[in-house]
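Researcher: I'm preparing a figure for a lab meeting and need a structural model of a single chain. I don't have an experimental structure, so a prediction will have to do for now. The sequence is pasted below. Please return the structure as tokens so I can convert it later.
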Amino acid sequence: MNRDAIGVFDSGLGGLTCVRELGRILPHENIIYFGDTARIPYGTRSRETVLRYAKEDIAFLRRHPVKMIVAACGTVSSMLGLNSPVDDIPFTGVVYPAAAAACNLTKNGRVGVIGTPATIRSASYETAVHTINESVDVTVMACPLFVHLVEYGYTDRNNAITRLAAEEYLAPIRSAGVDTLIMGCTHYPIIRDIIADVMGEGVTLISAGEEAAKFAKRCLEQQDLLTDSEEPGHNVYYVSDSVSMFRENARHFLEDAARGQVFSSRL
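Model: Understood. Here is the structure written out token by token.
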């Protein structure tokens, strides 16, 4: 049994949706989170820049005792594809776990994907879905404003600005008749209610961060890396920008806010 932490990173705060799920399904595990809040968003950057940022984020987490790394960032996961940037500890992004869940849940064989511009340009979700089931039809749409709206707190179900953006972005997805929609950025579950309202009944929403957390649990179980501690796990959060802003905004992502220690850290 291994009492080292699970390392999680994201371009900002969206990865906290993955942290929340990890805390729910693995309550005894320690978690170290890094949010690169000084350089958000990753979704509008070039592939070379995103991969450089990801390398630096991983290097930061590896300064700490971690037994697994989760790239809780749809953009990073899309750029990496199915390749792991580390070879000595388990690693997962969010793309493959979410794609596998979608293939398992769709009944009519039509899956939608929403993500950042970089994620959609990469075609990573189409590749992952068709690797699992080549007969599934995939419709994708970039939603560049969603990350900014979430980070700035425009998350209320009745927020007119976010709802208007959702109606415009999701119209082609609805027209395609999908019955399953992958929220391919970990920020998007924060506005899940708005997305669900626009998509209507009968469409299953998949959170990429939650599916990555479930996948991480299976990896740790298979490699006998789960902790044997019976004490509640402890979370430590690092951000590359304002700690106070993190504390203020984290409540949108974590039901119990950020109970662990929060530090500002340069890469």
